[in-house]
Structure formats: structure tokens, C-alpha cells
Amino acid sequence: MAEVQITGVNKTFGTVEVIPNLSLTVPNRSFSVLVGPSGCGKSTLLRMIAGLEEVSAGSITIGGEDVTHAEPSDRGIAMVFQSYALYPHMTVRQNIGFGLKLAKTPKAEIDARVDEAAEILQLGPLLDRKPKQLSGGQRQRVAIGRSIVRKPKVFLFDEPLSNLDAALRTQMRVELAELHSKLDATMIYVTHDQVEAMTMADQIVIMKAGIIQQVGRPMDLYNAPDNPFVAGFIGSPK
Ligand code: ADP
Ligand code: MG
Predict the structure, then answer these.
(1) ipTM of the prediction
(2) Which residues form the ABC transporter domain (predicted)?
(3) Distance from C-alpha of 29 to C-alpha of 130, rounded to nearest angstrom
(4) Which atom in ligand 1 lies closest to the alpha carbon of residue 40?
């Protein structure tokens, strides 16, 4: 069980209140997509769930456990970023296993988990290559591989496809959907792209200026937007 429950969260930087009072339930094993214009607080919310940013007020539970003040490494989450810096001098196998090595995981177990991740992501034939010998899409898969090997309950994606070209984005959308169905994990996916939200989400969360405008299934938001902002963002007919 890895439902994510956010209750009454406030985030204030100095005197600037970026998120006034946000509550949200992300169902266990859902693919929830958080959308909204640039600067509305999507990354900030994700970073608070990950523990990379302290909440100013409120609480966060993951799988029923209060993680509001837990270390990022104790939350059972993995975060995949837009810029996926791989270590250029390491092979794909070493890049994927690096976090486990830092955690002093025995080598045999690292190898087994890297092989398993490579199988899921179809990286098997590429394990001995260096990042510069990979395409953009393959590099992104290696970055996702680094998160899979840690067996997180919750994956957090912050605009992971925004550096890829259109064709590759379409392919990666399909691959992420497949990944979601293969893994027993909850995924929270941030994007500012309506098409990604409409095609990938079980649940869309629309934000504007730190405030959730509506939460629901894509077609429900499309057919019954709560306000003109949601209608405009989703592209509902007038
Ligand atoms: P999004 O990911 O939706 O584009 P962000 O969460 O990155 O938005 O940012 C939301 C707002 O919070 C922006 O106005 C941004 O300038 C501000 N912000 C984010 N991080 C900080 C920080 N560390 N210090 C001050 N302001 C910040
Ligand atoms: Mg952002």
C-alpha cells in the first residue's frame, strides 16, 4: 500500500506563499498527473513529497506512515528529474547500480537488481555501454533504471520527457505506461503538457498559483470542468 496523503500543506519561501493550503489524496498504484502553468508550484509540491523541501505547515503520509519530517531516503520514494545527469565515465550497469553501491548493497544483489531493471526497460544489450554511446531515449531509460533498482513504492517524475523530441516523447509515454503496469508502484507525474496528462493519467490534478482547481479522471475533467481555467487548460469544448 502506498497511497500518498497530503493534508493542509503550506509552503512559504521567505514572505512569498507559494502553496497556501493544499490537500490531496493520490490513490495507491494510480498514475496521477499533476499539471498547471509554469511557476504554479508543481515542482515544489513534488519536492515536499520527496523530502527535498520542508513543508511550512501540514502533513504528508505515504502508505499510512507519517513522513512529514522523514529523510528523503526513508520515504520509499524515487524521483526522476528532467535533467538526468548520468556519470559519463561509468557504464550503464554501473550507472544503474551506483545508488545501491553507495548503500553498501552486496555486489551479487546489485547485479541481480540491475539485470531485473534492464529487463523491464529493455536495456539488457546496452549494459556495457557508456552514456555517450546511447540515444536520448536510452539515457532517460537508464535514469529510470537507477530509480527502479531501489524498489520504491512511489515514483515522482518531474517533467521527465521535456528534453526529448516529439517522436521520442510519444514512445516514452507508452513505455512509462507499461512500466506502471509492470511495477507495483504509485506514480506522480508532473508535466505542463495537456496531451501527456490526458493520455497517461488515471487521475489528473490541475493546479494554478499553488491551488488545486480540480481532481478527476481525464474525461470527467474534459466533460465537466469545474471552472473556465480547467476548461481552457484541458481544451474542453466551449
Ligand atoms: P513549477 O514547477 O510549477 O513551474 P515551482 O514549484 O518550481 O513551479 O515554483 C513555484 C514558485 O515558487 C515560483 O514562483 C518559484 O519562483 C518559487 N520558488 C521555488 N523554489 C523556490 C526557492 N527555493 N526560493 C524561493 N522561491 C522559490
Ligand atoms: Mg517545475
Answers:
(1) 0.98
(2) 4-234
(3) 33
(4) 3
Q: In 3D, which of 147, 124, 123 has the Cα closest to residue 135?
A: 123
Contact 190, 34 (CB under 8 A): yes
For 91-133, write each residue's pLDDT tens digit: 999 999 999 999 899 999 999 999 999 998 889 999 999 999 9
Residue 219 has a CB neighbour count (10 Å cut-off) of 11
Distance, CA of 13 to CA of 193 (rounded, Å): 26
Task: Looking at the CA of 18, name the nearest ligand.
Answer: 1
- Ligand 1 atom at minimum distance from 45 CA: 6
Rounded to the nearest 10 degrees, what angle do helices 136-148 and 92-102 cross at?
30
Q: Which one, of 149, 137, 125, lies nearest residue 175 by Cα? A: 137
